[in-house]
Amino acid sequence: MRHNKAINHLGRKSGHRKAMLANMATSLILHKRIETTVAKAKALRMYVEPLISKSKEDSTHSRRMVFSYLKNKYAVTELFRVIAPKVADRPGGYTRVLKTGFRQGDGADMALIELVDFNEAALASSPKKETKKSGTRRSRSKKSAVPAVEAPKAEAPAVAAPAEEAAPEAPAAEVSAEENKAE
């Protein structure tokens, strides 16, 4: 029985599972985004978030502790030099799991796991969200309605001017009739 056992074994022995999670964590740190199954993404999130928290304190001890999990010095360097400064003020939640659908071959539920502060698309759209509209919603006043009515009048003489040269009487009568209808 698995009473209160929180870890997902992923159908693997402990050595295989640890190696797989270390490789996936290394890939996530180096590439900032990987695609995998939902179960592996959730297991990876539980594996990598404590490592990112440890990387906030740049000491020899924390580097050695992270290296004992990742077993890749390039990933440790990337984690401490690039990722840790960006997440220094974030209290947790460094990764995001986005479900992408089902795999063609076996129908496995697939997901994209990424580091939150390194998603360029989300960061590019976030300044647009920060802009705030006015606090109240009001209907159009007479001031805003007047320029909308006057704009077609300004265009009407420009359209009528070339027509007046060819036949001066007929188009002028049509333009004046249109102005009377608009008013």
TrEMBL record:
<feature type="compositionally biased region" description="Low complexity">
    <location>
        <begin position="144"/>
        <end position="175"/>
    </location>
</feature>
<keyword id="KW-0687">Ribonucleoprotein</keyword>
<dbReference type="InterPro" id="IPR000456">
    <property type="entry name" value="Ribosomal_bL17"/>
</dbReference>
<protein>
    <recommendedName>
        <fullName>Large ribosomal subunit protein bL17</fullName>
    </recommendedName>
</protein>
<dbReference type="InterPro" id="IPR036373">
    <property type="entry name" value="Ribosomal_bL17_sf"/>
</dbReference>
<feature type="region of interest" description="Disordered">
    <location>
        <begin position="124"/>
        <end position="183"/>
    </location>
</feature>
<dbReference type="GO" id="GO:0006412">
    <property type="term" value="P:translation"/>
</dbReference>
<feature type="compositionally biased region" description="Basic residues">
    <location>
        <begin position="134"/>
        <end position="143"/>
    </location>
</feature>
<dbReference type="Pfam" id="PF01196">
    <property type="entry name" value="Ribosomal_L17"/>
</dbReference>
<comment type="subunit">
    <text>Part of the 50S ribosomal subunit. Contacts protein L32.</text>
</comment>
<keyword id="KW-0689">Ribosomal protein</keyword>
<dbReference type="GO" id="GO:0003735">
    <property type="term" value="F:structural constituent of ribosome"/>
</dbReference>
<comment type="similarity">
    <text>Belongs to the bacterial ribosomal protein bL17 family.</text>
</comment>
<dbReference type="GO" id="GO:0022625">
    <property type="term" value="C:cytosolic large ribosomal subunit"/>
</dbReference>
